[in-house]
Amino acid sequence: MKPAIHVASLRKTFKGRDGATHTVLKNLDLEVGVGEFLCILGPSGCGKSTLLNVLAGLDKVYEGRASVSSGRIGYLFQEPRLLPWLTAEGNLDFALASCRVPTERWDQLKSRYLAMTGLSDYRTYYPHQISGGMAQRLALVRALCVEPGILLMDEPFSGLDEITARRIRTDLLTIWEETRKTIVFVTHNAYEACFLADRILVMSGGAFQQEMPVPIARPRSYDDSAVFELSRDVIKAFGDGMGREPAPVAVPKPHSNLVDDLDRHTAARMNL
């Protein structure tokens, strides 16, 4: 089967103010299967967002090849980027009209994804009337309503508190398991990557340093010790890729309570 995304010898450079040439992406090769959930893990400035911009067609100045073959692309950013003068439903209508989705399908698509994210009762609310977590869920609904074959996600939950982010990650997996859209999810959170992904690529300095499959059965539990143990291995791989040892991670207690769970999940997140 033809991959949803194919990247070959992708290289991107730019000139700095000093006139020197800086390489952002270094001869990347990548294939993402149809319906795969891929996470790209790396520090700020390693080229993750630049790669997504190339895949989305927002950045067309590069060497090599980057192609997608699964129809329309949805893009979810770090911020919701909602139009403040439109209601929640108005923001969805704007996206549907812009992408020329047939109007007879609008109600079905909006109702489906609003229900899946718990936002059915907030259609008439403006962005300033809902919480940050709800705004990001609405941005996810907007991306899904236009029926993308591929969904690109650039650290979409990094600005949320951990409890809210945890709920939205669970919502995202529920939606993905039902729709099986191809997802490329960029993050610097090892635990998040292990919970969500089929496969993780560790990225540093504009290059993929290591590929790590996620052998944890689905559906997954956020409190599964296997997710935590794998996140420790991923953090070590990340640290090795950076040429340094990562900060130590506390081993979870066998019978932890909710506070302990939150503490260790936050610890895993903060190690990156």
Q: What would you call the shape? A: globular
Q: Note the main sheet.
A: 6 strands, mixed
Instruction: State mean pLDDT (0 to 100 scale).
Output: 87
Helix content class: 25-40%
Pfam family, one: ABC_tran
Protein name: ABC transporter ATP-binding protein
Domain ABC transporter: 5-230
Function: Involved in beta-(1-->2)glucan export. Transmembrane domains (TMD) form a pore in the inner membrane and the ATP-binding domain (NBD) is responsible for energy generation.
Tell me about this structure:
One of its GO terms (molecular function) is ATP hydrolysis activity. InterPro entries: AAA+_ATPase, ABC_transporter-like_ATP-bd, ABC_transporter-like_CS, ABC_transporter_ATP-bind, P-loop_NTPase. This is ABC transporter ATP-binding protein. Residues 5-230 form the ABC transporter domain. Keywords: ATP-binding, Nucleotide-binding, Transport. The protein is an alpha/beta fold. Helices cover 37% and strands 23% of the residues. The chain contains 8 helices and 9 strands. It has helices spanning 48-56, 88-98, 106-116, 132-145, 162-179, 190-196, 225-241, 258-270; strands at residues 5-15, 21-32, 37-41, 63-68, 73-76, 150-154, 182-187, 199-204, 207-213. The strands form 2 sheets. The chain has a 6-stranded mixed beta sheet with strand order 5-6-7-3-8-9, with helices on both faces. A 3-stranded antiparallel beta sheet has the order 2-1-4. A hairpin with a 2-residue loop joins β8 and β9. α2 (88-98) runs parallel beside α4 (132-145) and α6 (190-196) packs across α7 (225-241). The two termini are 35 Å apart. Residues 243-272 have low confidence and may be disordered.
